[in-house]
Write the structure tokens for this entry.
Amino acid sequence: MTTSLHSDRGQLWAAPTLMPAVSVVVPIHNEYESLPKLLEAIATCLRAEGLSYEIICVDDGSTDGSTDLLKQLAISRDDLRGVILRRNYGQTAAMAAGFSHAKGQVIVTLDGDLQNDPADIPILLAKLDEGYDLVSGWRKNRQDATLTRLIPSKIANWLIGQVTGVKLHDYGCSLKAYRAELVADMKLYGELHRFLPALAFIEGARIAEIPVRHHARQYGKSKYGLGRTFRVVMDLLTVWFMRKFLTKPMHAFGSFGIISLAIGFGIGLYLTGIKIAFGATINRPLLTLGVVLFLGGIQLFSVGLLAELVMRTYHESQGRPIYRVREVVDADSSAEAGRQISKI
């Protein structure tokens, strides 16, 4: 049975320290200027809604002072937990770390650069209350460069929708709301954070998309570029394979095998016919090269998919995370440290 965030407010938000209604996960990397404003905007919005909440900021190897600032803010604020990663692992790992530390019934994610608007969080929560498991934001009026961001994004969103069967306008929007039990069932590797709706669909989730606001970048510069395209394509192939053949991989490899055998058999018959009819030699280097390249491509593709399955089995069977946390900083840990110092 789906629990409504807006039913029985008195009980749901009476004990925020035990189980907050909302966990807001914010991966940050070099967001020194925007971090204080973002935290205040999130807190103002959720307090106005009467929601119990927690904010989890995951520092993904910042080098501009964001790490020290996050520690200071986490010590001084009761609603903030800072998770400091040992180095820069990437947004997927940062989100996985945030999900792991979240305690809320609903998890909301957004970027730390103030381009997502925290004021849209209640809209996502209201949509989630309609019975959905995941609500994704759509930056309908996106404030980014046309050639380097908007056009590639539209192409990518169309391609991802065609391949995965989950057709959204904006896969790249970080502003999303998830039910906690849905996130608990998903494992993230590579660049899979952008494919979370597709992964959720594999788990049987009900998904909705609603327009949200998007602001021009105020501080710093974008961490994303066209260089990530090939990695995204590789992960897209992984998601496609997971959706199609996760429980029946032989259907994929068997199909390629049958095609390969059929082509090889057909070539053999053709060359045999040429030999019988005309007595011509069958030593044709160009044909040999084509066969070798074709079979080599199949082998490489198959090995890649098998390696992906082995990697997932390795991580999930051992419960081995793809990140390492250096420390977790919040007001409670600071108070405990103070008590320990006083005893010395």
Summary: The longest helix spans residues 285-318. Residues 7-17 have pLDDT under 50 and may be disordered. The two ends are 51 Å apart (CA to CA).
